[in-house]
Design brief:
The chain is an alpha/beta fold. 56% of the residues lie in helices and 15% in strands. The strands form 3 sheets. Strands 2-1-3-4-5 form a 5-stranded parallel sheet, with helices on both faces. Helix 6 (239-289) crosses helix 7.
Length: 498
């Protein structure tokens, strides 16, 4: 055998039922092994060869076996060897080159077949090439194991990365929910302040009516007491007292008529009107919040806008004219309370964008299996370079300390949750117009898309359009689909106030 820079020793197992054939093969190979790289083992049967392999735990590089032997044939032996020790090379040496034997031997995975009587050079050449094949097979097996280990480590890193992404996603969702709650509390604070003002006026009417009623009743009670005194004087025959009281009550008759015809009715009417106004405000507030409608329901979008408009009426402060053009639209399957929040954000933004007197137009109509809502104002408009950012969280053109920059971001997400779209057109100095598109079947389509995209269930006021959250969700979805190949992409715009 030729030497190499890094010599490797090989173990050969020769199997033949004729001892002199065994010795001859080993002698020939030993004579050609000038570098002493070969170590030989021998067996006279397939059974003995298997025992030897078992004792050596399969530490044999190449098996040379006769094909026809008593008991187990060479092909049968190699079939068992290849099953138990797949990295061991094999060569069949036989004086019978029958077709079935050859096919059986090669089917078992042998490297070569040597027919007896053999040429010594050919024998050594076959052994050499078979050992090279064995070495190559073992290197390939080692590479496969390395590849498996690398794949395992990659999968482990992907799993760790996936877990990190999921944790980051959950953290971001938690943070966004806190921000959403902050925005809701901010909106609620403004709403409560306005409602307090709205309730104060009718409450004042109720109080004023109650005070007037109390005064009127006191006067009437005085008259009743004087009539009692007159009755007693008359019964007692006290003519002087009777005349005095009769004259006094006659002079007061006009006052009594006033109390009965105007004073009391006014007091009662004032209290009733104030109470009805308070009742209407509470009813509108309940309709706006829809606390009893957290699930999807069919609702009247026009009614939701009207109710919201009444609740934020204080923002208009008798300086803004609201023009309504409500179309004949069907009820929409939706989350009513959430849509009302969108309408509130847009109406409040519109009112705050108008300095001094101005106008807000509200228009609804049905078009292409969708409900369209347009809200336009005559405010100062949005700078051209800011229009693209208005739905991004925390972006706001309001003065510092006014708004959280989440109103339109939340509105955008709510509309998207309904399978719809919200767009804006604005011209500085000429006003802004928001257009909301709400498909009739938007809720169902949005749910189907979320299911297909493996989007996690979201909270009531989802504001999942934050680019980082969408990026993480896409990475998770792609990791699940093909580990290790997650792509990152830009998220949809988020929301905001203008």
């Amino acid at each position: 055998m030729e030497s190499s820079e890094s010599p490797t020793r090989y173990k050969l197992l020769v199997v033949d039922d004729e001892p002199h054939v065994l010795e001859t093969i080993i002698d020939v190979l030993e004579d050609r092994d000038q570098d002493g790289l070969l170590e030989f083992f021998s067996a006279t049967s397939g059974e003995e060869a298997l025992e030897m392999l078992e004792d050596r735990h399969g530490e044999i590089d190449l098996v040379l076996t006769d094909q026809r032997m008593p008991g187990m044939s060479g092909a049968e032996l190699l079939e068992i060897i290849h099953e138990r020790y797949p990295l061991i090379g094999s060569v069949v040496i036989s004086g019978f080159a029958e077709f079935e034997d050859m096919r059986s031997a090669f089917r078992s995975g042998i490297f070569d077949y040597i027919k007896k009587p053999y040429d010594e050079d050919h024998l050594c050449g076959v052994v050499k090439s078979s050992l090279e094949k064995t070495e190559l097979r073992r290197r390939n097996a080692h590479l496969v194991e390395e590849l498996k280990e690398a794949n395992r480590l990659l999968e482990q890193r992907v799993n760790e990365r996936t877990m990190d992404l999921r944790n980051s996603l959950e953290w971001l969702k938690s943070m966004q929910q806190q921000l959403i709650q902050s925005e809701k509390m901010s909106s609620l604070g403004q709403l409560v302040a306005g409602i307090a003002h709205e309730i104060n006026n009718p409450a004042t009417s109720v109080y004023a009516g109650a005070e007037a009623l109390e005064s009127n009743v006191e006067e009437l009670l005085i008259f009743v007491e004087r009539y009692k005194d007159l009755l007693k004087a008359t019964q007692d025959g006290d003519a002087a007292t009777t005349e005095e009281l009769t004259e006094e009550l006659s002079d007061a008759e006009e006052d009594v008529d006033y109390l009965l015809e105007e004073g009391l009715p006014w007091s009662i009417r004032s209290m009733k009107e104030g109470a009805v106004r308070i009742k209407d405000i509470v009813r509108n507030l309940k309709t706006f919040s829809r606390v009893d409608e957290a699930e999807v329901k069919h609702a009247d979008v026009n009614e939701g806008i009207r109710t919201t408009e009444k609740l934020v009426h204080h923002e208009f402060k008798n300086r803004i004219t609201v023009n309504e053009e409500f179309g004949d639209i069907p009820q929409l399957e939706c989350y009513p309370g959430q849509l009302n929040q969108v309408f509130m954000n847009l109406l409040v933004n519109a009112a705050q964008a108008i300095e001094g007197e101005g106008t807000i137009w509200i228009k609804t109509f049905a078009e292409n299996n969708s409900i369209v809502v347009k809200i336009k104002d005559t405010g100062g408009g949005i700078p051209e370079n800011s229009v693209k950012d208005i739905f991004n969280p925390f972006f706001t053109s309001k003065p510092a300390g006014q708004g959280t920059g989440l109103g339109l971001s939340i509105s955008y997400s709510i509309v998207k949750k309904h399978g719809g779209d919200i767009t804006v057109e604005s011209e500085p100095g000429a006003g802004t117009e928001f257009t909301i598109l709400l498909p009739f079947d938007g809720i169902q389509k949005a749910k189907e898309m979320a299911k297909e995209d493996r989007v996690s269930a979201r909270s009531q006021y989802e504001f999942m359009d934050v680019s980082r959250i969408e990026e993480l969700e896409r990475e998770l979805a792609q990791i699940d689909a093909s580990p290790g190949t997650a792509d990152k992409g830009p998220g949809e715009p988020s929301d905001d106030n203008h």
